[in-house]
Amino acid sequence: MKKLVLLFLAASALVLTPAHAQIPFSTNSKEVPTLAPMLEQVTPAVVNISVEGTRVTQQRLPDAFQFFFGPNAPQNGTREQPFRGLGSGVIIDAEAGYVVTNNHVIDEATDITVTLKDGRQFAAQVLGRDEQSDIALLKIDDPDNLTAIAIGDSDDMRVGDFVVAIGNPFGLGQTVTSGIVSALGRGGFGSDRLENFIQTDAAINSGNSGGALVDLRGNLIGINTAILGRAGNIGIGFAIPSSMMNDLVAQIIEHGEVRRGILGVRGGNLTQELADALNISRTRGAWVSEVVEDGAAAKAGIEAGDVIVSLDGRPLHSFAELAAKVGSMGAGRSVTLGLLRDGDELEVTVELEEHSVEAVAASMHAALQGAQLSTLDNDQGVRISAVEDNTPAHQIGLREDDIIIAVNRQRVTSVGELRRLLDNAQGVIAMHVRRGSSTLYLVLPN
Amino acid sequence: MSKAGANVLQLFIKPALMGLLVAAVVLAVLSYLNSDPQPRMTPSSSVASYADAVTKASPAVVNIYTQSLRQGPYDPRPRNSVRLGSGVIMDDRGFILTANHVVSEVDEIRVALQDGRLLAAQMVGSDRLTDLAVLRIEADNLPVIPQNTDLQPRVGDVVLAIGNPYNLGQTVTQGIVSATGRIGLAERSQGLGSGYSDFIQMDAAINEGNSGGALVNSAGDLVGINNASYQSQLTDQGTSGIYFAVPYQLAYRIMQQIISEGRVVRGYIGITAEQHYNSIQEARGLLVSAIDPEGPAAEAGIAIGDFIYAIGGEPIQSVNQGLDLVAETRPGELLEVQFYRDVRPMVAQVQIERLQHQ
């Protein structure tokens, strides 16, 4: 009988080894379940991010000043206000020093400092960022002996799964909180945003932004981004799923910016009322109300009235989810969409198209509207691949085949870099352009 | 069992390869031996998750939307006011439990199922003192919440709150039972303050819109009906980690009464009492601090200052327990009350009346 007891101890050791990387269920054994062993592996990959910068605020003086002081009146001007900010980030590539965080953490920052859990500090640069999805990729200067996080598949998460949030709330220092997945596919809060959040009740607060949401294996399944509630955490927090982050980061690494894929449909959620009206037996999916002419969807044969029910074999819950997934995938990607048409289920393969290039240029600076931009292969600048007549870009003097090599005497290496320089530039912008064998300066109006 | 154990033992001392097999066998035996009803790992993956409990329970939790035309104090034109809540489908006849404050004084109640169906609901009845209401919908193939009538929540049990906070869509939050039998935290005439509802206290976050939704355990069984209307009384910001639910057993009893009689009938004894430790008798009980002169207790001879230690033969430990015993006695029935007047033991037969003004 003694031997039998021994056997059970040995066996329970075997059984428990995986179990306590797991969970706080009640246990009758002496060992208390804990997340500590998993967290010891993972937490070095989560960093604190502190930023500094100056925020330019427009100051408009009342007209009365002009009236009283005449030409000596103080000028309407910009006021520069220094600011500091705190957030979190996740190391996803130790060799290259890549750190993922939220765009809103590093927005407008001029100096970014990454502090590791072991106390070491590094300066970091922004490699690329995407406002609509709120993802930014940083690169640590001279990375040395970093720990990267393992990236999990957020598409495998289910409501009820345990998750752990790791970050730097209120600048307290690294903090770990636990909860479960409360819901999936949350979105539709901001109309022009790409949102497909994982909702969690793990406590997330200001400063957690950009930090990690991991599963019980320690794999990254989300980037903590937002909470509901003004006063602080009320048990409703949101994280960008790791699958979406992966797609965006891959584009930033490749192009220096996010090149959004375009499906070319408009629509909304399939609601009960709509389903009744259209005589559809389902109530979950993205309903297509309009197909953009000559767009990717039109080419693949998608028609107005179709209901898109799945993307690459995964069921879709809402139109916002479709928009977020497609919008983070990147141009050129092929996706398989499951459709419901007149009661029949069919599948189509769509190659996502590039966001109209003109829109890309116009979104950087109003004066670039009408120009098409492309990064030169050897990172020697940004080439103007076309300029439409009678557009602002044409008016400031940009011509086809011009190459933008610098903005305000800072080198331009890529489209992403050009966007960053234009974003950060203040006042008049002087663009250094190479045309054939000569160079010239073009001035962009303020 | 010992024979199976001996077989396992033989296998175990054989070469290392066999070890894996042993582990599998022992794992099966261990999980069989374990009488604890809580699930640990889902069979589909090795990582613990409450996904299975959520899958079982969440389809039966509905979103409730109410509409009412209200006349403001200054504007004579009626305004349309919309309120939000959650509810739990209790059986396949379409009876839904929810919080009374979600559905009281409204003109229209609509229920949204998780499969997308949107249905009109009828009010069956309500009970202000426990802040519960029963609705009914007419539909086929209704998902019903798993229930275990023997379930007794214990402090430390894992619970999941399911509901529709702020109309975000169905949301599941997790926590533990922090306390049971919470009463009288606030001076109120209904719900938590009424003394008629021994709330479960928990730390699973619930918010506006969660009221009336389900609190389930890790097996998906209904533990309580969430009530989010007390947070603001406890903290200014409502972010305290202290939340409440009406226990399932109480909610079920109230629902049965509402379904069969359209309302809840409670017994009335006509005393006000406070919990008291009588050092002479070395016993806990209730000290009568006020008495309704026309009430049943006064009629049966009970007076202010009496120390009640048993009602209906049951020793009384708390005001709440006494209140429950009286409330559950049908009006007209006799209830035996045992008490001390000074040091003299006495017994009174009290004919319980019906509680008015609920």
From TrEMBL, chain A:
Signal peptide range in chain numbering: 1-21
A Pfam family recorded for this sequence: Trypsin_2
Locations listed in the record: Periplasm
Domain PDZ positions: 252-343, 349-437
UniProt keyword Hydrolase, yes or no: yes
PROSITE patterns, per the entry: PDZ (PS50106)
Record keywords, A-Z: Hydrolase, Periplasm, Protease, Repeat, Serine protease, Signal
Family note: Belongs to the peptidase S1C family.
Protein name: Serine endoprotease DegQ
Taxonomic source organism: Aliidiomarina sedimenti
From TrEMBL, chain B:
Gene Ontology biological process terms in this record: proteolysis
UniProt xrefs under Pfam families: PDZ_2 (PF13180), Trypsin_2 (PF13365)
Residue intervals of the PDZ domain: 258-321
Keywords associated with the record: Hydrolase, Protease, Serine protease
Claim: Transferase is one of the keywords in the record: no
InterPro entries named among the record's database cross-references: PDZ (IPR001478), PDZ_sf (IPR036034), Peptidase_S1_PA (IPR009003), Peptidase_S1_PA_chymotrypsin (IPR043504), Peptidase_S1C (IPR001940)
Parts forming coiled coils: none
Matches recorded under PROSITE patterns: PDZ
Keyword Protease on entry: yes
A molecular function (GO) term: peptidase activity
Span of the signal peptide: none
Family annotation (Gene3D superfamilies): 2.30.42.10, Trypsin-like serine proteases
Family per similarity comment: Belongs to the peptidase S1C family.
PANTHER family, alphabetized: PERIPLASMIC PH-DEPENDENT SERINE ENDOPROTEASE DEGQ, SERINE PROTEASE FAMILY S1C HTRA-RELATED
Official protein name in the record: Serine protease
Native source species: Aliidiomarina sedimenti
Organism taxonomic ancestry: Bacteria, Pseudomonadati, Pseudomonadota, Gammaproteobacteria, Alteromonadales
